[in-house]
Each structure stands twice: as C-alpha cells, then as structure tokens.
Amino acid sequence: MNRARKITAALLAPAGVVAVLGFAAQDHIRGAAFVIQAAGMQGAARTAAEWATEEVRESDVSVPWRGGTLRARAYIAADINGPPALLVPGVHAGGIDEPRLIQFARDVASMGRVVVAAELPDLKRYSITPRTTDMIEDAAMWLSSTSGYAPDGRVGLMGISFAGGLSVVAAGRPALKDRIAFVMSFGGHGDLPRTLRYLCTGIQPDGGTRPPHDYGVAIILLGVADRVVPSDQAQPLRDAILAFLHASHVDMVDKTQGQVEFARAKSMAAALPEPARLLMAYVNERDVASLGPILAPHAEALGGDPALSADKSPAPSAPVYLLHGTDDNVIPALESKLLADALRARGTRVSQLATPLITHAEVDHSATTRAIWDLVSFWANLLDEE
C-alpha cells in the first residue's frame, strides 16, 4: 500500500467528522493533514496526519528592512517541496513568540515548506502603521533574494489578522512583481477605516450588526489619543491603555496575575485628569457603546493611508487566498468577501472561504463534515501553489 493510500485508510478509520477526510483525493492529503494538526485532532487521524508531514527544525534569523532589522524565526522542513513563506503576526504583544503563531508556523512548515515568521514591532505595540507594510515588503524581498531559502526567487506571504490585509497590500507592490507565489490573509481586512468603524459601532458593511470585540476600541483610542484629549493628557492616557492591553494579554495565560494587571490599569485611570479619566474608564469597563461613537469620526484619519488597505492599493498579480471565521467579531468576515470581489474585478485570482471552524484567525476544534471538507480544500489548493 503506497503512502497516500495508507494515509487515506487511516483517515477513514475514525468515526464521525474525521471520516470525511478519508475521501480526500491524493492532492488533498496535505490539506487534510494540515487541518487535522491545526484543529488539534488526536487518535488515528493525528497518526495519519503525521505520515503526511515532515520533521521541522527551527532557527532564529534577522531580516533586514529599510529601517533596520526585524527579529524572525525560520521553520525548515526536512524535505522541502514548495516555495518558502513569510508569516507575519497580527496585533498582538506576543509577536512571533505567541504560542498559537508558533504552532501555526510549525504546522505549515511540516507540509514541506520553509516558513519565516517575522516580527512586526508596530503591530506588537498595538499600532497599525504604513511602515508596517514596508516591513512586510522588504522582508518578502529578502526572503526571495538573499535569504538562501528561495532558489527560484518566488515566495508566499501569509498574514494573520490585520497583518493579513497588509500582506495583500505588500504583495501588490511593484518591487515584488513576479516574486510572489501566493498571498494568504487569515482573518484580515480589506478596508481599514471600514473595519475601524465596525469596531466602534458594531455595524458591518452590509448594515447588519454584530457586537464587536471590546479590545478594538482600546487600540483605536491608543492611536487617536492626541485627537480626543488635551496634548498633556495624551501620553498618560496611552500608558494606561497599554497597561489594560498588557493585562488582557496576561489574563489569557494567568487569570490571577491578569486581575492584578487589570487593577493596575484601573488605578492608572483613576489618576488621570478629565476627560482622559472618563475615556479610560470606558476602556476598563469594556464599554464600547459609550467609547465607540467618540472614536468613530477618527477612523479615516487613523486608517486612511492607502498602504493600510488592500482595496485602495494595486492588486497582486499572484493568487490571493482569503480565509475568515464566519463569526469573527474583530474583523468581520464580510471584509474578506468585499476584498475578494474588489480583487477579482481587477483580474486577480482569488480563493475565499468563510468558515464556522475559524474564530478570529484561529482554528476551532468543533467541526461538521461540510465545513471541514471546505477547509481541507482551501488548504490543499494553497499548499499546491508553486
């Protein structure tokens, strides 16, 4: 029995949802194996997936860009069978050390790839800036030219959350023409001001409503503090917001310490003069309804640079893959749909999937046969890009 048939047979063995993977054609085996790993499935399905994957070694690297160097980590498969990929994390204090990003990078690399995860310092500090797109562009240029990982000079781009939309922008820049094999946005945006307005109002681009994640207004207030409070209050307000965001990060892994950090953010808020004190109280109370209308008028000023929105920038000539969770309350799934429509109108080949198996840029563990098959197909097609 050859390797592909062994994998298929093992995938057929488990009852329930995993059984659908057994019907995967040979060219879908890698997609099935990737989904099994990313979803944390165990048992016979996990064993089968491991037959389809490669051992991965890791090493720290430095990536040059026009403003200096970026900290990065390379994940290198034992047997490479496709173009390397630049992976960039979204707005998160963990950067390339965030455990879910590390696991994602390992899972992609195990499909027979080199993955270079590059840290974007502004996003790590909760700031979405035009120069971040420059960092992605320059890192992709390095990966395709002098890194030693791209023999034919072509690379993939993979961006998470807000870095997904920025990766699509970077892929369309002239310097990367003919160097990009594919670009993937995982839970990313098409239009940044439109997304910021959603985070302030809960109103999606089609007029539907969905309560937004409260951390969005905290990040927006961080960016526009000098526009909504007197100049001498702006930095103390930013310091208090950063304390709240740090507490949110800590709380994900240590609830007890998280409460200590949240208490510190509240004490910092209490020491602020008005109106900064009131705005910070809204942040600490997660009061989007009160804070959002104050911030919404500033969405265009904060996010209006064309370098921050794929639908305002040149379209990539390479294939674009847009993956989104249907219930995403940070960046609505409709953002990927609207971006797909805009790119197709400009001649770009786009594969777009909204799936209930994804939360915000993270694979969920629950599954239905149809949803998992769609996700397998999405990853199979992406991993086949050469």
Feature tags:
about 375 residues, alpha/beta, 3 domains, 8-stranded mixed sheet, 16 helices, 8 strands
Describe what this molecule looks like in 3D.
The protein has 16 helices and eight strands. The chain has 386 residues and is of the alpha/beta class. It folds into three domains: 1-53 and 365-386, no CATH class; 57-189 and 309-355, Alpha/Beta hydrolase fold, catalytic domain (Rossmann fold); 194-303, no CATH class. Strands 1-2-4-3-5-6-7-8 form an eight-stranded mixed sheet, with helices on both faces. Helix 6 (130-145) crosses helix 7 and helix 10 packs antiparallel against helix 11 (255-270). The longest helix has 21 residues, at 231-251. It is globular and about 60 Å long. 52% of the residues are buried.
